[in-house]
């Protein structure tokens, strides 16, 4: 799966969780501006694990990986 394909799936998942319009979410938007509260963030992590078949606890996530959807998509692409 390419980074662009992963970005699209992440945007769809985040839009579903937050109720935002897909067009309002850019891959380069800072994560903290996506309207996710702590529960929404946990939902996003579960979505990522289920969609991309990753165990996030073992991926050595850092705060920098969540600076944008694009950076997170790059991490997911490397771990698949």
TrEMBL record:
Signal peptide: none
Gene3D superfamilies: ACP-like (1.10.1200.10)
Pfam families: PP-binding
Residue intervals of the Carrier domain: 1-80
Protein name, UniProt field: Phosphopantetheine-binding protein
UniProt organism field: Pelobacter propionicus (strain DSM 2379 / NBRC 103807 / OttBd1)
